Amino acid sequence: MRIMRLDPGTRQNLLEDLLKRSPNQYGEYEAGVADILEHVRTDKDQALFDYTRKFDRAMICADNIKVTEEEIQEAYRLVDPSLVQVIRKALDNIRSYHEKQCQRSWFDSRPDGTILGQKVTPLQRVGVYVPGGKAVYPSSVLMNIVPAKVAGVDEVVMVTPPGKDGKITPNTLVAAHEAGADVIYKVGGAQAIGALAFGTESIPKVDKIVGPGNIYVALAKKAVYGHVSIDAIAGPSEILVIADETANPRYVAADLLSQAEHDELASAILVTTSMELAQQVSEQVDAFVKSLSRAEIIQKSLDNYGYILVADTLDDAIETANEIASEHLEIQTKNPYDVMTKIRNAGAIFIGEYSSEPLGDYFAGPNHVLPTNGTAKFFSPLSVDDFIKKSSIIAYSREALEAVHEDIETFAKAEQLTAHANSIHVRFEE
Length: 430
What we know:
alpha/beta; five-stranded parallel beta sheet; 18 helices; 14 strands; 45% helix
């Protein structure tokens, strides 16, 4: 991996380089995505069947677009029972963590008859997109469905692209069934997003769409926002490690590569105060790459967006981490909790040398659907909050309104909204 001294110029160039990975930079694909969405909006199921035949080489029709109970049972027969057990253990951890996020409706009453409050209501129907492509991620199935079920969503609709044989990967089906998906459809890509946003003869319109996907899926979600809600526009995966001279270079190298293997646009960055550690990590990375199965993808990722930055002080390293606002942030320093208190921007923070990033991807419980491309400065991980909505409650007695009615009328008249003022005034006419 390339080793660079950290200075203001290096930091600025790095930030500009990383931003090139944002889905917002892929405008040339938007017209094609818009055409797909319009075709789905107009021709509904037929568009889905046409695109699935074109892109996935699968023959899907109204009779087989929906996954059957028999297909789910077949998936269980094909999946290693030991994996099913691991999925169930992870599921317990994920559910337990998200149950602690639940919010309740509340009401506050006063002696004058005023009642104010907030009513928390789960969304009625949510669409979950699960990608196919270069890799299959049953872990993402759990992370997207579980918080929706914990929130109390009435119906979770899952879509995922089929293989050429018209079937869904068994691991994905098992994970979806264990997590509680209510219905699963064999369709992927921008056309699946269109189906969830607009509805077709087979697939119902949803209230919100969540889940990661390729650039076409990301741009489709961006385009349908407003017709439905979405979680976020997911970009390529990324990891940043803050380390000092006490870190284990072998651990750091292994953790950097855990994200570099996702795809060629993934970013892996080490910011350290030790030049010796930087050199050792670089050597360990080179040794690991030779033996890993996705070596070609990893090497391209490192060549494009892999960096080892050597900072003068730990505060400089922390400042850089806050500027980058990485999806995954590991802290491997002498006093990691002290560093953690200074972190302002990160999707998920992993503290200490035994809290490697894959722990969060698969098992610990916190959600692995995280903000990318610097959006951790203003976005949060996927949570139960994403699957509820809130309504304000206002109830005044005559006594309570009488005490303030003139103030309200004055405010309304100041905005020249006399009908507003009159709505209050008529209740106190002599």
